[in-house]
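Quick note —
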Amino acid sequence: MFKVTALFSLEKPPLIWRSYAMVSLLTLLAFLAWDSTGWDMNLAHVWGDSTGFALRDNWWLSQVMHQGMRSTGWLVFLALLIGIWRPWGPLQTLATPERAGVFIAVVCALLSVTLIKGWSQTSCPWDLQMFGGMAPYVSHWDLGQRDGGGGHCFPAGHASTGFAFMAAYFGLRQSDSPRALVWLGLALVVGFVLGFAQQVRGAHFMSHTFWTAWLCWTVGWISHVLFHLLRQKKNQAPAS
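Predicted structure written out below.
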């Protein structure tokens, strides 16, 4: 029987991917179910109406939670890069190749969100007719269909400022870092807080935040496992 404790097993790759894959599968089903309920629109109507979103230009949400936190995210990203050669905090428990793997996993998580967002034709709630914009509502699952709005709003790019750093959890956990779960918890909390802030402003639906979390988790563990297997293969290769 699958146990919750198995999600954070100290078992080494390649077998540990099974627990991570189970999380990805269960959350995939949960988020697909959410998409089918119409709750995205119900929540959006809590904060917006036909005149738009009252808090769209709120100073705290736009300047601190959006601009300020985005700058903070880049600083953490830069710190992870520098940490490959000058480790700090939980990175001190990792060898140099493992620190590089942590950074690569975070980069892959960020790129997955950025690439899909750049291709997506889905517009933000504040662009929709029902919220005072010009675009009709089109589901983000109607792939490639333009709605006449600005597009490029799915998944939630700003929430990835927090969620992308979940990818570092896998390298920390494999190395038995005592702060691995703390790191994971902080990344989740920051991601959901930033996603909620953007929802209140009308920049995203809740599903956009959910799918960003799913992408960052899934791409993070796949990147980590692939990096580990490549390193293992390289170490086992006979010297020429």
